[in-house]
Amino acid sequence: MQPLIVAIDGPAGVGKSTVSRLVAQELGIPQIDTGAMYRAIGLAAIRAGIDVKDEATLAELASKTDIEFVPGEKARTMLNGEDVTDFIRTPEISMAASHVSAVPAVRRVLVKLQQAMGSRNGGVLEGRDIGTKVFPDTRHKFFLTARPEVRAERRYRELMARGQAVDFDKVLAETVQRDTQDSTRADSPLTYDSSYTVVDTSDLTIPEVVSRIVEAVRSVIS
Questions:
Q1: pTM of the prediction?
Q2: What fold characterizes domain 5-217?
Q3: How far is Cα 125 from Cα 34, in angstroms, rounded to an integer?
Q4: Three-class DSSP category at 109
Q5: Measuring CA to CA, which residue among 146, 143, 151 is closest to residue 198?
Q6: What are the φ/ψ torsions at residue 10 (nearest 5 degrees)?
Q7: Are 146 and 201 in contact (CB under 8 A)?
Q8: How wide is the angle at C-alpha 80 spanned by C-alphas 74 and 86, nearest 5°?
Q9: Residue range 39-89, pLDDT digits in tens
């Protein structure tokens, strides 16, 4: 029996990480946070003083970097043995991750790692090209979307809750900028096709989104 793979793609701010974690819990399979992987590489690059557009050096960094996930009610992201779960959620790292994820050599390294993780025990993977590039053959593909201002508001509230001084207009501008970068990059751009189920989360609660995905998956595997 093939491992169960659920692909959840979409832009920043649609709730992919939270939804993926809850869907994984409902289905009893691991969550593989691919976005956190790119954020971790972005953090490692900044710490090492590497230009996030230096493709050759970033590729070398990615090949030597160890990224793992520790399961739990809140999964932890480990970078070379260090818990960086909170460090990788700042606006600076978000933009760095967008640059890093556009580097083909980095994507190749991390895609192989994602495929290896998913092939072992299955999993819910969220990102921007899971259903198009990482696991294109899975029958369970979902593309989450939401209006830019809604996503920016969610991000703004999240950062404020962490005690960070942020300006809403700046968060909205960064949201739009990242959408442009992710959807226009040459390698594995943010996109979806007719094999996906599209879910607009603008006016839905997290439990409602999770319920739609879980029900759709179970309807296929039952």
A1: 0.77
A2: Rossmann fold (3.40.50)
A3: 6
A4: helix
A5: 143
A6: 155, 170
A7: yes
A8: 35
A9: 999 999 999 999 888 889 999 999 999 998 887 777 789 999 999 999 998
